[in-house]
């Protein structure tokens, strides 16, 4: 452990050896998001299998690219903190699915006003157990909604309705903010404003879980 990396020393393989499948998977979900919050990139990388897939509003690709992209955003000042709820875990043989409700908050200055940006979502993870070890094979996000509020009560911030209208309801405020910062966003992500798309996603997840 160095002065710039305060990640914990627990190995993911050790988690698999000391807990039940349910508790191990739940801990890895938290372990991965803790690493993102604090910039502990080695810890974050240890939770993913090589070639794992990540699908988010700002990124589609493998886990290695996701981690390097997260590091780049982190070093550029994008340091949201996650508030995590207990994951719901389903296990079927060597496969598992975990879903955790979560929110992120971060501080930004919007046109001279200090604001708190909150985004609410459900994090979805596909896990695989290989040689007795659980790691993440795929990470997806279901977006719910976002808020942007001034830090100081009584101050105000204005988002032009015409600018916000370009983005999906499920993540419009986050997408608007990311676009202002020069980050490309995908307007076709999973969100509660498209229930048919969500139904297909969960059906596909169930088929994968049970090997169908």
Folded structure, characterized:
By secondary structure, the chain is an alpha+beta fold. The protein has a single domain (12-209), classed as Nuclear Transport Factor 2, Chain: A. Helices cover 34% and strands 34% of the residues. It has 7 helices and 7 strands, in the order αααββαβββββααα. Strands 1, 2, 3, 4, 5, 6 and 7 form a 7-stranded mixed beta sheet that branches. The N and C termini lie far apart (43 Å). The mean pLDDT is 89. It comes from Subtercola lobariae.
Ordered list of secondary-structure elements with their pairings:
Elements: H1 12-18, H2 21-38, H3 41-46, E1 48-55, E2 60-62, H4 63-75, E3 81-84, E4 88-92, E5 95-110, E6 113-130, E7 133-150, H5 161-164, H6 172-180, H7 195-209
Parallel strand pairs: 1-7
Antiparallel strand pairs: 1-2, 3-5, 4-5, 5-6, 6-7
Summarize the structure.
By secondary structure, this protein is of the alpha+beta class. It has seven helices and seven strands. The chain has helices at 12-18, 21-38, 41-46, 63-75, 161-164, 172-180, 195-209; strands at 48-55, 60-62, 81-84, 88-92, 95-110, 113-130, 133-150.
Notable traits:
alpha+beta; seven-stranded mixed beta sheet; 7 strands; 7 helices; single chain; Nuclear Transport Factor 2, Chain: A; 212 residues
